[in-house]
Amino acid sequence: MNYLNLTNLNLYDMKTTQLLLAILFCAMFVNLNAQIDVKKEVNEQATNKAENSVEQGINGGLNSLENGVKGLFKKKKSNPVPAQPEAQKSVQETKAQETPQEVKPQSDNRPSLALYSKFDFVPGQKIIFYDDFSQENVGDFPAQWFSNGSGEVVSLNNFPGKWLNITASGCYYPEKDLLTTENFTAEFDMIVNVPDGEFFDVGFYIVSGNVKEPNQGGAIPGVAGVKTEITNRGIDMSGYADGSYTINSSSEFEIPKGEKVHLSYWIQKQRIRIYVNEKKVLDSPRILSAGYKYNILRFELGESKPLISNFRVAAGLPDTRNKLITEGKLVTYGIYFDVNKDIVKPESYGTLKEIAAALTENPGVRVKITGHTDADGDDAKNIDLSKRRAESVKGELARSFGIDAARFETDGKGKSQPVAPNDSPANKALNRRVEFVKL
Description:
eight-stranded antiparallel beta sheet, disordered N terminus
């Protein structure tokens, strides 16, 4: 088929040219009974246009022609033209989408954390243990952990960071005494990696015992404790002391397989509350036996082989009102962000609620919010990230809790003001913080 050479057309009568082209295209369609790829033809002319500035005047006519011819084709029921797929957008539109955007996200456009108003978890303020396996080599067993089974640190292509991949049955726990207080929290991320249709069962114990004797108590570890059994149908919780189970509690819900799940345990004396992501699933007020020091947190695995990361243990109840209002400064580790992100995570709701309550009770108080990062990454990017995080915290306090945004100033210091050496995951976690200072 011979196509017209549009470069030689006279531009003095554009309307006549467009009409002639429309007639020719329709005649070709009728006589040859062939489906014409209008977009391809137009794109070919657009390419020639870039080579000859004279053709810039034709471009508008071609666009009008394409729309007209496509309209004619749509009227023919016998051979409709399919809708253009997304992949065939204009060159200008495609380039605009591919160009990285430097515009910072606006807090006011984000969903309100008020959606998670029933999530009242507040993590402990004194970090006792933290491990995200970032300083471990892939393929090694983590240096701070004990196991009578086996496992290795891995990286995943669909989840950031490093993970402990448990590969054999046994017990796994940080090889140190963890807890020195009756009020503490424990958190970790978990990915349940089992084929569809298979049952999984992951045990997580809070134990009073000798950290150097992993077999103490046999199947009921230590001298006292609580066993939580995490399954694909929910969580079962059982308290025990001196070899006998004392109380049981359970909650039924679905834990998705192949997805990252955040589990939070809040222990206050004998009471344990358990959260899965942003939902409280269990609350048992007397399940821990009194009179014991609970110093071991351990996983017990059978056939199921989960992946674990971001294991954090912290002690002490937050004293938000006293620290912020009386002492004039509050340092919090309970406001969470994903790596290199500035969006406040839903797990932060409980902490922000406490801060908002203190500010509501003291309406004349103004506060400066300052973000801090660890030493990983570029200095300038860390400064920018910490400033954006402070702005996000301000936005959440205003949007989700009704605190007047005019009461806040924000700043970010990046890694410039560490409170601990950046030499371990636990110390880096101490440096990643948000500070509130009364003005």
